[in-house]
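Hi R.,

Here's the chain you asked about this morning:
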Amino acid sequence: MIQRLRTRPQFQAVLASAPVAKTPHFALHRLVLEPAEGLDALFPAAGPWLGVLIPKRWARRAVTRNAIRRQIYATAPSGDGLPAAAHVVRLRGAFDPKQFVSASSEALKRAVRAELLGLWSRVPTRTAPAAPRGHVA
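And here is the predicted structure, written out as tokens:
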């Protein structure tokens, strides 16, 4: 079963890592949960964790943010499809309001769903530890 990220420190820990997959509107961050790093306090249960970050900057209306959030959770792979790591899907750009006039249209939901399926297909299944942002390997 996928656990949901709830606290600010959990989100901050995951967002400190570089994105492992990107699409025009979304980025997926992953934090491999290694016992040696002392992350047991932040992530007490073993298995996959998933969080969603949708800034008001990119989706002004609450109905739009909620529709996108629902699509993210609906398209996420099941527990066996995600490795035992913490994941955050972040909206990184607005959907064109001229193309999607309604705040929660079926066309918007289809576009979001299609892009999210593409994002999940780009996710590497191996959980190699990600280098922190700004780190040159």
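One quick note: The chain has one domain: 3-122.

Cheers,
M.
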